[in-house]
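Researcher: We're teaching a course module on how sequence relates to structure. For the next exercise, students receive a sequence and then see the predicted structure as C-alpha cells, so they can try to spot secondary structure elements on their own. Here is the exercise chain.
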Amino acid sequence: MKKLLQLFVIAVLFSTSIYAGGFQTGTQNARAMGMGSAFVGMVPDASAIYFNPAGLSNFKGFNLVMGTTLIMPKVDFTGPTPLTTTTSTVERTFTPINFYAAYTMDNGLSIGLGVNNPYGLGSEWPETWLGKRLAQKTELRTFYITPTVAYKVNDYFSVGGGFSYIASDVQFVQVIDIPVLAAGLPAAPNIKVNLEGDGDPAIAWNLGLLFKPTDWASFGFSFRSEATLNFNGDLTFIGLTNATHKVLFPDGKGKSKLVMPWDMRFGVSLKPMKDLTVNTDLMFVGWESYKQLEADFETNTSVWKDLLSPKHWNNTFGLKVGAEYLINNLALRAGYVYDGSPIPTKYMDPSLPGANRNEFTVGVGYQFTPNIRFDAAYQFISFTNDVSDSALPFNGKYENSTNLFGFNLALSF
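Model: And here is the predicted structure for the students to work with:
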C-alpha cells in the first residue's frame, strides 16, 4: 500500500516524464519544434512569451501564434527479470495546445498573453499487465496562463518578463489484488484504485533578455522560477464488496506538495547567410528541488499509511541545435536535441521510466501572404533503458518511441 501512495503522487506530477526530460514537453510552437526548439536567441513571433519574453521586441504591431501538437507515445516493457514478458502501452494521442498573442508598440513596449499546456500527457497500460499494481493509467492536464510585458531599451538590448497562473488536474488508475489478510477475509482480485486530484492555483514568474549587436547575431537568456503545486485528491476503490475491505481500504481525500524546478536557458542565433539561420540553446533544469515524495491521506489504517520517501533527483543539462533555410516563401527546418534525464536508476518504475535521449526534428513553413504563415514539424523521441537489477522493486527493460506532429498558424498585422 505504501507503493500505491508513492505511485499516485508520482503520477500526479511526473506522468509526462516518459516523453521528455523530467516532465517538460517543450513542444510550444511548430516553427521552433522543427528547429529542435532552439529558439531562445531567435524568437521572431509571439511564442517568445514561452521561449524568451524579451523576444517580443523582434516584431512590430500585432502577432498571433496558435496551434497544437499531436503526441503519440509508445513504451514497451520487458520483465521483470527473470521473466521476459513484453507489454506495450495502449495507443493514445495527446493534443496539448499553444496560443500566444502580443502587440508591440512603436515606443518599444510590448504586451502579450500566452495560454499553453506544457505538462499535458499521460500513459495507459493494459488492465491485466504484470505491473498493474504500480500503474495502469495516468493523465495530467495543466493550463499555464501567462501575461507578459517586454521593452526594447535600445537598438541592441531588450528585456521582458511575466508570470504564469497555473491550473491543473490529474487522474491515476491502478489495479490491485488484495490477498487474504485474515481468517475469514477472502482475497479480492482486480480492484481498481481511482485517484483524481485538482491542483490549487499556483504562480511562477519568468524573465528574458535579448542582445542583438549585429544583424547576423543575437544572444538570448531566459529563466523560469520554481512553482509550488499543492494537490488535493479523491480516492475511490472500485470493486470492493466486503465490509471489512472497505474499512481497511477506505475512500477518502488526500493531499501532496511538490516544488517544480527552475528552468534556465541560453541561446545563440546566427545568420551565416542571408537565407540561413542557425540556433543553439543550452538548458539547465533544477530538478534537485524534488528531494522527497510525500503524501498525506485523510484516513490511515493498518494497511493504508501516509508516505514520506526520499528521491534526490539530479539537475539536468540539455542541448538544442536547429537551422532554418528560406527558399522564397518556403522555410525548411531541421534540429537535434540532447535531453538529459534527472531520474536515478534506483527510483525507476513503469509510471516513470526515463533515460538520456537523442532526438531529431524536421519542419516546414510557408508564408502564404505577408500576414499569414503556416508551420508544421515532426519530432521523434526514442530511448532504451535496461534496469535489470534484481534489487529494484520492478526491474526490466524500457523501450520508448514517440512520434510528435506539430502544427501552427501565425497571423500578423
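Model: If you want an answer key for the exercise: The first helix runs from residue 2 to 14. The longest strand covers residues 188-214.
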